[in-house]
Design a protein that fits this description.
By secondary structure, the protein is mostly helical. The chain has one domain. It contains 11 helices and 2 strands; from the N terminus they run ααααααααββααα. A two-stranded antiparallel sheet has the order 1-2. Strand 1 and strand 2 form a beta hairpin. The structure holds zinc ion (ZN) (2 copies). The site of one zinc ion has 5 residues, from helix 6.
C-alpha cells in the first residue's frame, strides 16, 4: 500500500499523512468525547513526545538531581549536576534518534515527510553542516540557557522564595499540574513564536532555527541565544504556581526533548515492522516548509482561531503563500 492522497499537496512530500491535520478535539464543537479520549490516549498511553519526557524527568529527578537542601547556595557541584541532567538526556534522545533515522537509516524513508536528506557542505549552516550547526545551537546555546534558568529556580525553591509543594501533601494538585504543564508550555510557545516571526526579530534571531527547512532531531531546540532566552522563560511560571522539583524537571524535559521528537522528520519510529514511537509532527513540519502558518501546536488551536492554520492541503499552501507575501510587502 502506498501513502496517497488526491490533494496535490501530497505530491510535494515523500510521505503525507493523508486527509487534513487533526487538532485537539477538546476545542471542537459539538464536543465529541470519544474523539477527545482517543486524542489523549494517543498522547499519554504510547511512546510519544509527552511520555518520553515524563519518564526521563522521573528517572533524572529520582536518580540524579541533588536534594533541594543542597541547592541553598550556589555551588559548583550541584550546578554541574543540573547541567548534566539537561545535557545527557538531550544527547541520548537526539543522538539516538539521529543515529537510527539518519546515520544507520534504520527504517529507510518509511514515514519520512521530506524526501531530502540533511544538508552537508552548505554555507547556510554554522560549520557548513546542518548536523553540527544544530548540535552546537542545541548543546551550546539552548542547554546553557535552560540550565541557567533552572539554577535560579532551584536555588529559589531551596530557599523558600517560591512556593514549593510535595506530592504527598498535595497529591491532587501535584498530579493535575504535571498534566497541565504541556498545555501551559503550548500556550507560552504560541505567543513567543508569533513574536519571533515579526520580520525584524525573524531576520536577526529566529532565522537560525529556520535555516532548517528540512528538519531532523537535532533541529528541535537549535535556536539563537535570544530565542532560547524567550523560549525557556516558560519555566518562570514556577515563580507563582506552587510546584515540586519534579514539576520543574518534567517542564525541562518536555521543553527540550519533545521538540527533538517533533522535529525528527519522521511521523513514526519503526523498528523491524513494529511501531516503536510516535515521533514527528506534520503540523510543525509544515511550519518549516511554509513558514507563516502553524505557529503554535495542534494541542491548542490558536492557529485555527487566528486564521494561520495549515491543514496539510494545497489550498492551505496557497493561502499561506499569499499571507507571507502580504506580511513582507508592508
Ligand atoms: Zn518559526
Ligand atoms: Zn521548529
Amino acid at each position: 500500500m502506498t501513502d496517497v492522497s488526491p490533494d496535490p499537496e501530497a505530491a510535494r512530500w515523500n510521505y503525507h499523512p493523508g486527509g487534513v491535520v487533526q487538532l485537539n478535539p477538546l476545542f471542537s464543537r459539538p464536543l465529541d468525547l470519544r474523539a477527545v479520549w482517543r486524542w489523549y490516549q494517543g498522547a499519554w498511553f504510547q511512546v510519544t513526545a509527552l511520555t518520553v519526557p515524563l519518564v526521563l524527568a522521573i528517572v533524572v529527578w529520582w536518580a540524579f538531581l541533588p536534594a533541594l537542601e543542597t541547592m541553598q547556595a550556589f555551588q559548583v557541584g550541584w550546578m554541574v549536576q543540573v547541567w548534566l541532567a539537561n545535557l545527557l538526556p538531550q544527547i541520548l534522545v537526539a543522538g539516538g534518534l539521529h543515529w537510527w533515522l539518519y546515520s544507520r537509516k534504520g527504517q529507510g524513508k518509511r514515514k519520512k515527510f521530506d524526501a531530502r536528506d540533511l544538508a552537508f557542505s552548505n554555507g547556510t549552516f554554522t560549520f557548513r553542516s546542518q548536523l553540527w550547526d544544530n548540535v552546537w545551537w542545541t548543546l551550546g546555546s539552548a542547554i546553557t540557557v535552560a540550565t541557567v534558568y533552572q539554577w535560579g529556580l532551584f536555588w529559589m525553591m531551596a530557599n523558600g522564595y517560591v512556593p514549593v509543594i510535595s506530592f504527598t501533601e498535595n497529591p491532587v494538585w501535584s498530579v493535575l499540574w504535571l498534566f497541565l504543564i504541556p498545555a501551559w508550555s503550548s500556550f507560552h510557545y504560541y505567543w513567543v513564536h508569533r513574536l519571533e516571526h515579526h520580520p525584524r526579530l525573524y531576520a536577526r534571531v529566529h532565522a537560525v532555527h529556520h535555516r532548517n527547512v528540512n528538519i531532523g532531531p537535532w533541529t528541535g531546540i537549535s535556536n539563537h541565544w535570544f530565542e532560547n532566552a524567550l523560549y525557556f522563560s516558560t519555566y518562570w511560571i514556577h515563580l507563582i504556581v506552587p510546584s515540586h522539583p519534579l514539576h520543574l524537571m518534567f517542564h525541562a524535559m518536555f521543553q527540550q526533548i519533545s521538540p527533538v521528537m517533533s522535529h525528527s522528520g519522521f511521523e513514526k519510529v519503526i523498528v523491524g515492522d513494529a511501531e516503536a514511537a510516535k515521533s514527528g509532527d506534520f503540523f510543525h513540519q509544515l511550519h518549516h516548509r511554509y513558514f507563516e502558518c502553524n505557529y503554535g501546536t495542534s494541542e491548542l488551536p490558536f492557529d485555527r482561531w487566528f486564521g494561520t492554520f495549515h491543514d496539510g492541503s494545497f489550498a492551505a499552501t496557497q493561502r499561506t503563500r499569499a499571507h507571507k507575501k502580504q506580511m513582507y510587502s508592508r
